[in-house]
């Protein structure tokens, strides 16, 4: 493959995975995102590929499912010999002891790398306006920064609401091991003192070392500290795309890598499939409608009871097809923000059936993906947006996507990609995966227009 494999990452959801790919590409590191771990033979078809990723769904998994499904994937990625094996988590830290447990991930990583000391954990991603200071985490919402337990959206997440902003406390509830902190005061010390403090914490008997970061300079320092450690022995790390930024910067300087030019894209009629409950996604839907999109609300009960409500799904497809044939871009969505009454109705019905609320993403995502695939085949759709951190991953699986490559950076963390698939109707599809908290208010309009992030 030419140069060695620098990084292999597993994304805990699909939107987070494209975020990590985008950041690495932005540093000039070509990255291919796979749906399943690639074999060495498959990788050899891509020349000089420094970074790869696997788009996963572990954010919606129980610890038991992580053990049976995630651990073998990480082991397969380790066998490819990357300098860094990165479990890419969301920069909003949404996790719990029962769902998407970061503590469980750390324990798996410690088992895979028995000679490694503490597992580095970086949740901050300043390029996404997500910050950690003295272990406490903060995130932007519409231009203002909130402590995570007071964040208007994440404190009310339907599956993993964030009730604790102190990440040392939050993660300690997810593991029997202990954590230490590499703080902003450590990052502000002289180079020698930074390195000495880092070596002490990395070599300790703690399970993990949480790293603060507030700005780009902190991220560069983290890249040098952790990247240089990985030159001596491969490392397992857990964190957001802040780690992608840190390592990308370190390797770009070390290997003299240049950034690539992005193609100019034309305006194109666009299909949006949204399973997001985020208030920001609601704003993006309304902005899309103000700019000519047609919105159609999917009945979540009809999606849940798919076999018993084929007529409702048929009517949805008919209405969507009619709008598309009129030349309008289209938004199929399940919720209007976090206060939508359909969320509570769906959760009540799932509890009545004995189903976990964590199954919401898999069910809704799978149904939206199947509806999207029918529309893509019928109408020849070439550009799609999947909105929702959990649902978009399962929708991608239903579409039959096997790999993604970055096409254009449209918004931080939510790039437009090109899909690879054995299904000819999906292969070459231009597709963006957008987490609920990401993108500008006019994000859907930007994707349809083909406008780059900087424009």
In words, what does this structure look like?
This protein is of the alpha/beta class and 455 residues long. It folds into two domains: 7-255, Rossmann fold; 271-449, Four-carbon acid sugar kinase, nucleotide binding domain (Molybdenum Cofactor Biosythetic Enzyme, Chain A, 3-Layer(aba) Sandwich), CATH 3.40.980. Helices cover 40% and strands 18% of the residues. The strands form two sheets. Strands 9-10-5-11-4-1-3-2-16-17-18-15-12-14-13 form a 15-stranded mixed beta sheet, with helices on both faces. A three-stranded antiparallel beta sheet has the order 6-7-8, with no helix packed on it. The radius of gyration is 21 Å and the shape is globular.
Number of helices: 16
Biggest beta sheet attributes = 15 strands, mixed
What is the name of the CATH class of the largest domain? Alpha Beta
Count the E strands: 18
Which class do the helix and strand fractions yield?
Answer: alpha/beta
CATH superfamily of the largest domain: Putative sugar-binding, N-terminal domain
Count of the domains: 2
Beta percentage is 15-25%
CATH architect. name of the largest domain: 3-Layer(aba) Sandwich
* Radius of gyration, whole Å: 21 Å
Low-confidence stretches: none
Residue share in helix: 25-40%
Q: Mean pLDDT, rounded to whole units?
A: 88
| Biggest sheet strand line-up | 9-10-5-11-4-1-3-2-16-17-18-15-12-14-13
Shape: globular
Measured distance between first and last alpha carbons: 35 Å
The CATH topology of the largest domain is what?
A: Rossmann fold
Pfam family, one: NBD_C
Family: Belongs to the four-carbon acid sugar kinase family.
Organism: Cohnella thailandensis
Protein name: Four-carbon acid sugar kinase family protein
């Amino acid at each position: 493959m030419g140069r060695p494999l620098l990084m292999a990452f597993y994304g805990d959801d699909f939107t987070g995975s494209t975020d990590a790919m985008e950041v690495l590409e932005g540093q000039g590191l070509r990255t291919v995102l796979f749906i399943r771990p690639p074999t060495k033979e498959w990788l050899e078809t891509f020349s000089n590929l420094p970074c790869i990723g696997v788009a996963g769904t572990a954010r919606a998994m129980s610890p038991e499912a992580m053990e049976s499904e995630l651990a073998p994937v990480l082991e397969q990625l380790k066998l490819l010999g990357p300098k860094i094996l990165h479990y890419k988590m969301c920069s909003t830290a949404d996790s719990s002891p029962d769902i998407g447990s970061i503590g469980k991930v750390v324990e798996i990583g410690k088992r895979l790398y028995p000679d490694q000391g503490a597992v580095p954990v970086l949740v901050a991603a300043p390029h996404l306006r997500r910050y950690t200071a003295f272990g406490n985490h903060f995130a932007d919402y519409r231009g203002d920064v909130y402590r995570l337990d007071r964040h208007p959206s994440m404190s009310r997440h339907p599956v993993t609401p964030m009730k604790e902003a102190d990440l040392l406390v939050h993660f300690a509830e997810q593991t029997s091991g202990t954590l230490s902190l590499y703080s902003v005061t450590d990052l502000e010390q002289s180079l020698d003192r930074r390195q000495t403090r880092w070596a002490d914490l990395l070599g300790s008997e703690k399970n993990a070392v949480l790293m603060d970061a507030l700005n780009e300079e902190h991220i560069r320092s983290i890249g040098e500290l952790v990247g240089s450690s990985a030159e001596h022995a491969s490392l397992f790390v857990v964190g957001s795309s802040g780690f992608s930024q840190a390592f990308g910067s370190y390797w770009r300087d070390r290997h003299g890598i240049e950034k690539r030019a992005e193609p100019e894209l034309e305006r194109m009629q666009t299909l949006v499939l949204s399973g997001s409950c985020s208030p920001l996604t609601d704003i993006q839907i309304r902005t899309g409608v103000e700019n000519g999109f047609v919105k159609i609300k999917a009945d979540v009960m009809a999606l849940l009871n798919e076999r018993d409500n084929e007529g409702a799904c048929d009517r949805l497809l008919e209405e969507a097809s009619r709008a598309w044939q009129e030349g309008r871009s289209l938004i199929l969505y399940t919720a209007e923000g976090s206060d939508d009454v359909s969320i509570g109705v769906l959760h009540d019905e799932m509890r009545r059936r004995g189903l976990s609320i964590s199954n919401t993403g898999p069910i809704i995502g799978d149904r939206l993906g199947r509806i999207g695939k029918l529309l893509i085949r019928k109408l020849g759709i070439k550009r799609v947006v999947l909105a929702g951190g959990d649902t978009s991953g399962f929708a991608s699986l239903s579409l039959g996507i096997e790999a993604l490559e970055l096409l254009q950076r449209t918004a931080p963390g939510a790039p437009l990609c090109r899909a690879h698939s054995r299904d000819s109707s999906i292969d070459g599809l231009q597709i963006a995966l957008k987490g609920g908290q990401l993108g500008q208010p006019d994000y859907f309009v930007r994707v349809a227009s083909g406008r780059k992030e900087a424009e």
